[in-house]
Design brief:
The protein contains 28 helices and 22 strands. The protein is of the alpha/beta class.
Length: 725
């Protein structure tokens, strides 16, 4: 039988993996090494050369997009339809099994899958039925707790209780949630996996049926499997042990959502006689990019070990840009993209990568100013994010009490005991009297139309808005934003939830303070509009711009987590500063720093032709200027692969010489005109400030000053009067 079309396109390592004997095999597939090709050609080899029926193969991926791509490639390779094959995500395949064995799984035939929002509402209902205050038992946190236990294959009955009130309460919530879901025939995403695992564990005939059915089980992105997925795979392959896993321990970046890189690291121990095959030839990036990425990732301990290489040329050096601040960083990135596009490249060949979604705001602002279309991949524009809209609703309501949409959005956010029935009474009164909901709320309270409890809760909200309005009267935009976040309780509300998603919302809310500080009102025909109204109008217009569609030629903005699996000719990896990347949380939790380094490795290996690494000397975060220290990851890259466009002069962990004419904050040598870093000065226009950096000599000397009110500015002392204080 001719198998040339299956093995001829492969390199030696890929061919070794595809034609491996029927035994457990782990393929360590480095970034850009062709893992999808190996998986599809392995299936082709099993069917064509191994005589295996397509229905005897189970292939598991992590996304529906990856599953569709695999199906398409297999159809092309085998010239056979894949409609009857078991190719899909963990959740999709387990759902298919539960539909076939609903009775054995203890489910009604018409069981319903609920998404995250439905689950959240159900948790809130449970808390209400148990008479638990949401302020002390946040629904999002309870939802996260339930899902965490399920992903570790733990039922409520397995939770410790004892005399600890908190543990007893968690048990009551989880147990009540389970009982309600069972009674109503509801299945959440985590339950799909757990119920299937329990079906295999507890029902021998069903277990043996599928163990015999699937002669070969193949898994993509094996490093991303969690506890329950790994247990499910081990049971399914216990009979023949023909598990073919493809993964990369260096790209394990989802530990925060339950992924266990240990599943990959212990593969040889868990599967006796397992083969380990390494795919190290990279088909994506140039030599310098790969060498630099290798240098970073090898600092991690406990790796299985591999060294990416390429037959491609060394290519361009990695360019390192030390920006003055986050605005300078964004301006430099956008101007570089403009030059790239002028050279004839498409805009969608460019990706701007960042550790925190809050970083997107500065880039969005500069891209809008440049008239360059962009798309926030896998997310929303800054002003479209729910938590930002929540904060803006508070700001609108203190500016205009007649804003009904704002009133409805925040009247019970954070939860303050104002229920749907109370809101309906306010709406009815508003419609009947043709007045705003704010006015209607004050009237129904005054006319004693509500219960004492409802009136008290609604009254507290009205008092809160008035209190915030009073505290922010005649304040700067930055101060207004900061006070709104603090006094409204929004920040505390999200800080109670320890999930990664909630922490990202906290960072976005805090970035809103920076956005307010940096806002410069444009020209307007209505000179009566105050800065707050202009800022709110600008936010509404930016949110309404309409994100560029996926197929449009536009710059791609995305978090590093969203970038995995993608590739771009030109990549900017931004915000490489201690506390931002690696993230501060990684410095406080065991094992997280290595995951951050893997995330850096993933980001670097997205670049095909040119990689820019950027960091800022000062970054305004959460409403204040922070003097930063360049990321430790930068110092792990050998200088041979780096071209410094402009290097930092404030903190120098890179151990590289200061360029001529630049002085650091720790350099005590005098500068022209008696100025030196740290000198306090006064400028006739910008007011008081502190010298941050000095460049050049004689009349060409320029000084960067951090002014108290105007922020960072470059000044030429030869032409501007500066008084030393």
């Amino acid at each position: 039988m001719d198998v040339s079309h299956i093995i001829d396109p492969l390199n030696d390592a890929q061919r070794m993996a595809v034609t491996a004997q029927a035994a457990p095999a782990l393929v360590l597939a480095g970034a850009g090494s062709g893992k999808t090709r190996v998986l599809t050609h392995r299936i082709g080899w099993l069917v064509v050369a191994g005589g295996c029926s397509p229905q005897e193969v189970l292939a598991v991926t992590f996304t529906n997009k990856a599953a569709r791509e695999m199906r398409g490639r297999i159809e092309e390779l085998l010239q056979l339809p894949t409609s009857g094959m078991w190719i899909g995500t963990f959740h999709g395949l387990c759902h298919r099994l539960l539909r076939m064995h609903f009775e054995d799984a203890g489910l009604p035939q018409t069981f319903e899958i609920i998404d995250s929002d439905d689950q959240y509402r159900l948790v809130r209902r449970i808390l209400n039925e148990l008479d638990l205050d949401e302020a002390y038992w946040p629904p999002r946190q309870m939802q996260w707790m339930i899902n965490q236990h399920k992903e570790e294959a733990r039922r409520a009955s397995q939770l410790p209780t004892g005399e600890d009130y908190q543990q007893q309460t968690l048990y009551r919530v989880y147990a009540s949630y389970e009982e309600t879901c069972q009674r109503l025939g509801l299945v959440d995403f985590a339950e799909i996996l757990l119920r299937t695992l329990e079906l295999f564990r507890n029902n021998q005939p069903v277990r043996e049926l599928w163990q015999k059915r699937f002669k070969h089980v193949l898994v993509d992105e094996f490093q991303d499997t969690n506890t329950i997925q790994y247990q499910w795979l081990r049971i399914l392959t216990a009979d023949n042990k023909f598990l073919f896993a493809v993964g990369d321990d260096d790209q394990s970046i989802y530990g925060w959502r339950g992924a266990k890189v240990e599943n990959l690291l212990t593969f040889e121990t868990d599967f006796e006689g397992a083969q380990i095959i390494r795919l190290e030839q990279n088909y994506r990036s140039s030599g310098h990019i790969l060498a630099a990425a290798n240098a970073v990732i090898e600092k991690n301990d406990g790796r299985m070990g591999k060294e990416l290489w390429t037959e491609a040329a060394d290519g361009n050096l990695i360019r390192l840009y030390g920006a003055s601040n986050e605005i300078d960083e964004a301006q430099y990135v956008v101007s570089t993209i403009e030059s790239w596009v002028q050279e004839g490249h498409r805009r969608d060949s460019v990706a701007i990568l960042y550790r925190s979604n809050a970083q997107s705001r500065a880039f969005e602002e500069q891209l809008l100013n440049a008239g360059m279309p962009y798309r926030v991949y896998g997310g929303l524009r800054f002003f479209e994010r729910a938590e930002i809209k929540d904060a803006l609703a508070y700001m609108r309501l203190i500016s205009n009490r007649e804003s009904d949409p704002s009133f409805e959005r925040i009247v019970n956010l954070p939860p303050r005991g104002i229920g749907a029935k109370t809101l309906e009474q306010v709406r009815d009164h508003s419609r009947a009297k043709q007045i705003s909901m704010w006015q209607a709320a004050t009237e129904v309270i005054a006319e004693e139309q509500l219960s004492a409890r409802a009136a008290s809760a609604l009254g507290r909200f009205i008092e809160l808005i008035e209190e915030i309005a009073g505290a922010t009267d005649d304040q700067s935009l930055e101060s207004i934003a900061d006070k709104v976040l603090q006094m409204s309780g929004l920040l505390d509300h999200y800080k109670k939830d320890k999930s990664e998603k909630a922490q990202g919302r906290v960072e976005n809310l805090e970035e809103l303070v920076t956005a307010a500080n940096n806002f410069v009102p444009g020209e307007t025909e209505d000179g009566d509009l105050d800065p707050l109204s202009l800022f709110l109008a600008n936010a509404a217009l930016e949110a309404g711009e309409g994100q560029a569609a996926e197929w449009e030629d536009c710059v791609q903005l995305m978090s590093l987590h969203s970038a995995k699996g993608l590739e771009f000719p030109l990549v900017f990896l931004c915000g490489l500063e201690e506390g931002l990347f690696p993230h501060q949380r990684s410095l406080e939790e065991a094992g997280r720093l290595e995951e951050e380094r893997r995330l850096c490795y993933v980001g670097m290996t997205r670049a095909m032709e040119q990689l820019y690494l950027c960091y800022a000397e000062i970054r305004r975060l959460y409403g204040k200027d922070n003097y930063t220290q360049a990321s430790r990851f930068l110092s792990e890259i050998p200088m041979d692969y780096i071209e410094e466009i402009r290097s930092s002069s404030i903190s120098r962990p890179l151990h590289r010489p200061v360029r001529p004419g630049a002085q650091s904050m720790t350099n005590n040598s005098s500068a022209s005109n008696g100025l030196q870093p740290g000198t306090q000065v006064n400028h006739t226009k910008f007011g008081e400030g502190m010298v941050v950096m000095i460049e050049g000599q004689g009349d060409n000397t320029r000084v960067q000053i951090n002014f108290s009110d105007a922020g960072l500015k470059w000044i030429l002392p030869a032409y501007a009067k500066l008084d030393i204080l």
